[in-house]
Design goal:
CATH topology of the largest domain: FAD/NAD(P)-binding domain
Shape: globular
Number of strands: 25
Number of domains: 3
Strand order of the largest sheet: 3-2-1-7-18
Largest sheet: 5 strands, parallel
CATH architecture of the largest domain: 3-Layer(bba) Sandwich
Bound molecules: flavin-adenine dinucleotide
Radius of gyration: 23 Å
Distance between the termini: 63 Å
């Protein structure tokens, strides 16, 4: 009999797990359950769709029940798992028609993802108050925007999702206020000067910023009409919350060891504290190379990689994660920002003896007459060990690929000195003989 691998959750992490097993281990039986009706929705496309930068949602999916079943899996959609008997290795689920399933497993992969953080404030049940996570949420927003009386949208949370949505609603022709507790946007990913450049970009494009304030309640009769913060009242027609995600780990039922934020605690093989049970994606921890500790970073990239690792381990091939650096990017009205590792302010807050080296220059040789832009770079490193802890780049030019090298540098614990005379090519079409990476590294103390 084939060994049974049961996957709970068939989005990015679950799909990566299943594809890896189905492509490499024909001797395994794969059975998956998902509570949703769709698979593999790319949430990053939500803002592009709302902002009319893409014509529709069709390209935002890369897998489906049919694709996975054609490869040999059995996939139950709209069938939430409600209980797991870890001792006897049985998963219990029930579909929307009331059909009950008792599915035994040899290996179990938990890929239950994350849920939006819901603020505990008055008025959350008013109409036109939205979360942004699922395809259905995006559909809801698009449908509501057909109503011209929605003239003003308030976005709460100025992380990368909130900033992207602020741009999207503005592009959609709405007035937008962006609220955050912090006194700037993107504070988890960039240091203040970079964040301020993005804030200015948002303001220059007409987004009203309401930073350094907390939403205390929402008001309205049936629909939301006002957002009340601890500093002001904002008249509005729609409120969208993007204040973060929490791991969805209810199925652990107190039996699986959890991290401080309740994510399933996993080792580098994605194993949980229960034998033959793995956890992947947003419901699980990662190893953060920048701080050399277990951490929680919810990204689709981590979901896919962890799914691949769990699949191999569950099928008997030992494979360990190399850890992650939280590499990320954002592009708003042509201002591109990328970062990896930790910021200088976070490094200091964590107790590192951290400093940074910075440089600003044109991307290409100045005799190149068009398509040139300034680039700012900041490299954060530990003054004692000299190990690179983080890097940030910003430009109107597409500098995104440069961050991959810093991601590897952090992963390999490279020192800032190693970057000083690193062989970087020069061709005027692309860059300058005195490359800004070299120049920033040479300026390090
Ligand atoms: C608006 C937005 C933009 C984003 N942009 C980016 C980006 O640009 N780059 C990036 O790297 N990341 C981005 N992300 C983050 C990324 O989407 C998540 O990290 C990713 O979805 C995690 O995948 P996952 O499979 O672990 O979890 P999820 O996507 O949360 O999927 C979990 C799945 O488990 C199912 N499930 C849960 N409980 C049960 C149960 N009891 N029984 C059965 N099924 C269950 C759910 O239905 C769901 O399908 C974005 C997220 C959002 C919301």
């Amino acid at each position: 009999m084939k060994e049974k691998i049961v996957v709970i959750g068939a989005n990015h992490a679950g799909t990566a797990t299943m594809n890896t097993i189905l492509d490499n281990y024909k001797d395994k039986e794969v059975i998956a359950f998902d509570s949703n009706s769709n698979i593999s929705f790319l949430g990053c496309g939500m803002a592009l769709w709302i902002g009319k930068q893409i014509s529709g949602p069709d390209g935002l999916f890369y897998s489906s029940k049919d694709i996975l079943e054609n490869k040999g899996a059995k996939v139950y959609m709209e069938t939430p798992v409600n209980k797991i008997d870890y001792k006897n290795k049985i998963v219990y689920a029930q579909d929307k028609n009331g059909n009950k399933y008792e599915q035994p497993y040899d290996k179990l992969i938990l890929a239950t993802g994350s849920l939006p953080i819901e603020p505990q404030i008055e008025g959350m049940d008013l109409k036109n108050v939205q979360y942004v996570k699922l395809y259905q949420n995006a559909q809801d927003v698009i449908e509501k925007l057909k109503d011209d009386s929605i003239k003003h949208v308030t976005v709460v949370g100025a992380g990368y999702i909130g900033v992207e949505l602020a741009e999207a609603f503005k592009r959609n022709g709405r007035n937008v206020t962006l609220i955050d507790l912090a006194d700037t946007c993107l504070a988890s990913y960039y240091d203040k000067d970079f964040c301020d450049a993005m804030s200015k970009n948002l303001e220059d494009n007409g987004v009203e910023l309401a930073f350094g304030q907390k939403v205390v309640k929402l008001e309205g009769k049936e629909k939301v009409e006002r957002v009340i913060t601890d500093k002001q009242t904002i008249d509005t027609d729609m409120v969208v919350f993007g204040i973060g995600f929490k791991p969805n780990t209810k199925l652990g039922n107190g039996e699986i060891e959890l991290f401080k934020n309740n994510a399933f605690l996993v080792n580098k093989s994605q194993e949980t504290s229960i034998k033959d049970v793995y956890a992947v994606g947003d419901c699980a921890t990662v190893f953060n190379n920048a701080i050399q500790k277990t951490d929680y970073i919810a990204l689709a990239t981590n979901a896919v990689r962890s799914g691949i690792i769990a699949a191999h381990n569950a099928c008997g091939t030992k494979l360990e994660s190399d850890g992650v650096q939280g590499s990320n990017a954002i592009s708003i009205w042509g201002l591109n920002m990328v970062s990896t590792g930790i910021t200088l302010s976070k490094a200091k807050a964590l107790g590192y003896d951290a400093v940074c080296t910075e440089f600003e220059d044109y991307q290409k040789a100045t005799f190149i007459e068009s398509g040139n832009s300034k680039v700012s770079i900041k490299i954060v490193y530990d003054k004692t060990t000299r190990i690179v802890l983080g890097a940030q780049l910003m430009s109107n030019y597409d500098i995104s690929s440069a961050i991959h090298m810093f991601s590897l540098a952090i992963s390999e614990q490279v020192t800032i000195d190693k970057l000083k005379l690193l062989d970087l090519f020069f061709l005027p079409h692309f860059n300058q003989p005195y490359n800004y990476i070299t120049m920033a590294a040479l300026r390090a103390e």
